[in-house]
Amino acid sequence: MNTSSLPRIAVLATGGTIAGQAGDASKTAGYKAGVVGVDKLLDAVPALGSVARIHAEQIASIDSKDMSAALWTTLSRRVAALLAQDDIDGVVVTHGTDTLEETAYLLHLTVKSAKPVVLTAAMRPSTALSADGPLNLLNAVTVAASKDAAGQGVLVAFNNQIHSARDVTKTSTYAVDAFRSPETGALGFVQDGRVEFQRTVVRPHTVASEFDVPAGQWPMVEIVASYADVSRVVVDALVAAGVKGIVVAGTGNGSMHATLTQALVDAMKHGVVVVRASRVGAGHVMRNGAANDDALGSVSAGTLNPYKARVLLMLALTSGVKDLQRVFDMY
What we know:
By secondary structure, this protein is an alpha/beta fold.
């Protein structure tokens, strides 16, 4: 087979369950994440050679629960640099499932290229019976090699579905179909080499995004939750520590306990930005819906979950954005 005409896809490995290893093939928990190198991941999927020419790099070897802002900066810049090369047609990032949705959204907002960027992962370690990583990797490369994926922003290929980085979230602790886009559904599917998109991304991203990763330190933004009988201890401690922003995982439509609300009002008097999201898992938080944002000075996260709202807020604070509600309504 003449492979010279195949697209060239860069595969960047960061660790995760897809690179996990356990001593017992019957076990899907209790493994060590991120120990299998990118070369072995690729060797496990010989069919990749008929889909693309692969350029492989090991960016990190971590359990994605330990993802850091510093690694986000490294990854975003490396993806951008590769996509700027004429001989690279797309990028696939292998990642752990725990923080995949946050990394995907970060790249969605900071990578300035229309070329495909696809994240994938696995719910079962590479040593497990019926490991899902090899097929997910093959599908991710297939999507990245597809011309139809260009201009769609950062994508997640998982369990034969294609999701937008903005919409997707992890919804199961164990199932191989752990990733869903609760409000909008998947963008399309990939199966046996066929890539089909059934809708397109409408919000700005990548080349249309106003954001970039910070040149220096990321601003401190933390998440607090509202629940029955919540205290103000966490909010007060964060203000004392110099936090720049707080995202609230509120109840229902972003509602907040009265005690927490007063603590956040006091925090805003110290210059802390407060964004209201919801802990529910689906739906949107209406501005002035469950709280008077105009009076409080808070921002609605819209349909972003608390973790993605934190990513956007950090980028907005880094960029010096003044109208934060505009940003959350737009992105």
